[in-house]
Amino acid sequence: MIYIKSEQEIEKMRHANALVMEILTMLKDMVRPGLNIKRLERKADEVTKEKGGIPAFKGYNGYPSSLCVSVNETIIHGIPHNRILKEGDIVGIDYGILFEGFYGDAAITVPVGRISKEASRLITITREALFKGIKSAVVGKRVGDISHAIQSYVEGKGFSVIREFTGHGIGKELHENPSIPNYGSPCTGIVIEKGMTFALEPMVSSGSHEVEVLSDGWTAVTKDRSLSAHFEHTIAITDGEPEILSKH
Ligand code: MF3
Ligand code: CO
Q1: Ligand 1 pocket check for 216: Cβ under 6 Å
Q2: Tally of CB atoms within 10 A around 190
Q3: Reduced to 3 states, what is the DSSP secondary structure of residue 90?
Q4: What is the secondary structure of 22-45 as a DSSP string?
Q5: What confidence category does residue 248 fall into, taking pLDDT thresholds of 50, 70 and 90?
Q6: Which of 32, 119, 178, 215 could form a disulfide with 115 if both were Cys (CB 3.0 to 4.6 A apart)?
Q7: Which domain holds residue 184?
């Protein structure tokens, strides 16, 4: 079942997602060499509480933190323990909240000080891949068209898409149907309709797409320890271009 949202529900999702993005922007501004990533979670918790939201990830399937902080070869679900960022790192920050009954979910990858050309290119291509996916999310196309747009763009640039984790429907639940892989064939999967709301989230590696999950059961890293980047937006399907809900 895919839950179609009314305009009133989408309005609530605008609020939840604007708050997610406002907080992500604050966290991005904190990133610099010497920062302990634990402070990012503290800040996210503090602002979320102040604004009346609830962090969405903490306790979700037993995830132990409010925030995912994924450094370098970590793809997603990095747990923000004590770790000091250093010049040249890249750091993925993924955040979700529940606000007035609806979820918001978004992610960015940011450079720490000066980074290598390769790392910088990986970030740019991953962000661009997200926008290729968003552009394909229009009425009458299918979910496979989104997947294919992302995969073909990324692979055309010589990078790999991660296959173990996917984008997803979102709204009254953090994860709703459908799941939206970042690889696939055009003209396959469910037909996209107005009022659907999706979290698209390409994860891209500069090496192979193989994944290893560390012994904490969460931290997903590239098997070959190559760098990985991740961007995510929550969007709503409209009559025209999709609306990006996670902006502020
Ligand atoms: N954006 C990720 C997702 O949609 C983050 C989830 S973290 C988890 O899967 F802990 F909630 F799983
Ligand atoms: Co998500």
Answers
A1: no
A2: 14
A3: strand
A4: HHHHHHHHH--TT-BTHHHHHHHH
A5: confident
A6: 119
A7: 7-244
Mean pLDDT of 177-187: 98
CATH number at residue 125: 3.90.230.10
Mean pLDDT of 184-188: 98
pTM of the model: 0.98
Atom of ligand 1 nearest to the CA of 107: 1
For the Cβ of 218 lying below 6 angstroms from any atom of ligand 1, the answer is no
Residue 36 lies in a domain: yes
Kindly state if the Cβ of 94 falls inside 6 Å of ligand 1.
yes
Q: Is residue 2 part of a domain?
A: no
CA of 174 to the centre of ligand 1 (A): 8
Q: Total domain count for the chain?
A: 1
Q: How far is the CA of 216 from the centre of ligand 2 (A)?
A: 20
Q: Is residue 1 part of a domain?
A: no
